[in-house]
Specification:
76% helix, 50 residues
């Protein structure tokens, strides 16, 4: 997913908001990926034990 911001005069506030939203999405994606990996490994270990 890519967010493209066109450079222009008077758009500094919009750029900052878009950057903030993009960083929030990046953080959320990282948290989801990490959590998903732990859940997958946990399920794998339980499956191997049983």
């Amino acid at each position: 997913m890519a967010i493209i911001v066109e450079p222009g005069l008077g758009r500094h506030r919009a750029k900052r908001t878009t950057g903030s939203i993009a960083s929030q999405f990046r953080n959320a994606a990282g948290i989801c990926t990490t959590t998903g990996s732990f859940i997958f490994l946990f399920a794998l270990v339980i499956g191997l034990i049983r």
